[in-house]
Structures are given as C-alpha cells and as structure tokens.
From TrEMBL:
NCBIfam families: egtD_ergothio. Keywords: Methyltransferase, Transferase. GO terms for molecular function: methyltransferase activity. Residues 23-318 form the Histidine-specific methyltransferase SAM-dependent domain. This is Dimethylhistidine N-methyltransferase. It comes from Undibacterium terreum. The keyword Kinase does not apply. GO terms for biological process: methylation. Coiled coil: none annotated.
Amino acid sequence: LQTRFIQLYREDADELNTRLHIELSNSLLSPQASLSPKYFYDTLGSRLFQAICALPEYYPTRTEAAIFTQYRQQMAESIGTGSTMIDLGAGDCAKAASLFGALRPEQYVPVDISVDFVRGAVESLQHTYPQIDMLGVGMDFSARLDLPDEVRREKRLFFYPGSSIGNFTLREAIALLRRMRLSCDDDGGLLIGVDLVKDKNILEPAYDDALGLTAAFNLNILNNINRLLGSDFELKDWQHKAFYHPDKQRIEMYLEARRDLAVRWQGKQRDFVRGERIHTENSYKYTPESFIGALNEAGFARTRMWTDEQGWFAVFHATP
Ligand code: AVJ
C-alpha cells in the first residue's frame, strides 16, 4: 500500500524562511513579546502534547473521548456515512481513527503543520484501513485553507477536535470556521470539540500540571525558535506560567525570565528584565451559547451538541 502525501507550500523555501524570520523577529521585539503557539509543534513538541493528553489534570482529551464513545452512534446518524473527513491538526490521527468504525468515511485527509509526524501516522493507519482512501497534507491551515484538488468535494466533513479552536480569538475563530463553511458544499459540515468555561480550580492545574509536562511543552518552543531563527535562548533562564482570566474566558500561558538577560539572533537583540514574560498561548473557553453564536455567524445554521455530565466539554455537529 502506497500512501499519498502532499506537502503544500504557498511560497518557496527561501520566501517562507524570510517571512518566518520577519514574523518571529517582530513578535519577539514587540513591547509584549510573544510567540505563536503553532511553534510548539516540532517533533518533540508534538510528542510532549501527546503526553499532556494522558495527564490526570488535563481533562479535555479524556472528556472529549468519553463524549465520542458515548454518542458516536448519534453522531453517525447526524453525519451519515461516506464523508470526506478532513482532519485539521490531525497529529497522530488517533481521534479520527476511533470514529472510522461509526462514520465509515470514503476519504480521510489528515492535515498538520508537523509534516513528518503526520506522514508517519497516516502511513501506518492506511495499512489498518486499506478500504479508506487516505491523503496526508502538510500545511499551516491557520492562514489559508486551500486544499489540494485530490480532496473530494462530496460530503466534506471538517473534523477539528481537542478544542484547538481555543487558540484563536473570537474573530479569528469565526474567520476559520467560515473558511471551512466555504470549502464545503451544502452536503458538508463540521464536527468540532470545544472546551467550556468552568472553575479556575479545574482549569489552571490542567495548564500547570504537577509532573511539569506542560512546563516542558511550553519551554520546548524555545528549542524550536532557536532552530528556526538561530537565536540563543537558554531554557534554564525561563519559567512556565499559566493563568485563567475569567473576564476574557481564556487561559494565558507565558515564559517568564528568571533573571535580567539578552537574547540575540541575526544581528538583533532583545533585552528582558527578570520577571518579564513572553506570551506563548491563549486557550479560549466557550459557553454552549457563545459557541453556537460563532458557528451561526460563520454560516453554519444548524447545530447539534453533545456534552459530558459535568458540562466541561462539548462536541458540535454543525451544517449549513
Ligand atoms: C491543542 C490548543 C487544544 O489549549 O488545551 C495544552 C494546547 N497548551 N496544554 C489547549 C495546550 C497547554 C491545547 N490545544
């Protein structure tokens, strides 16, 4: 069995590199330094995130998995079989694979920025499911969602589990949902997992676990930036921080300087004073009402929701 894999670059490697350097330099030099959370996911980062999903404190993954297990028959009735399942941020493809039995997709299209990681995953999955046509795609869908022509148009089902939509602001989230809506015909739809607003005492430990895996995940972004930019970040100089802001309904993650220091790259320099922070992630939480509102605004008129008993997490099937 030969797996098909397409790596999509909108620009040639040089242009991509220049754009990436400009983007990273600007975000590091801005008064509130920041790094986009998409840079978490180098190969080690993807593995660390996999490990986070197994932590006792990190409730989203197992809560969502329990919702899928309990309601997958209802979901299958709502969605129908034979879809073109487009898995955004597929990672190890495990969540989609657990639904193959119930959903029986015709084609499976895992999309991920971590190219090597998803390539390996889809190759082994294709052997287990030879009857499903699989097409791996390596691309950053946060900016644009232009799928290759090999992706079927019929019954497109965007699959976006794990509350990854939480990394975007409401405006950005609606824009991404709208791009999904425009990419599918009226027979298409979206199956999406969303983390819900809840008590700070549940939320904060999920992003600051006792084992220190989230701290390692957060710090590893600096390894990736050093590699991409040629910067000289020293991981031992930085400390993981995570806070829930009830007013903004989001977790904010930072790396905080343990001492006064300077970071240098390509003739540039940024000074940090002790206690100064680099913002690395927002993870927005929704209420069922606020998320249905976002779906409606994006052009998904009909929605169905499944949730756990505690109301911690929700899965939506949305259609035009
Ligand atoms: C992959 C964006 C859903 O926000 O919960 C986990 C990433 N960051 N722990 C999340 C993450 C720290 C995760 N998402």
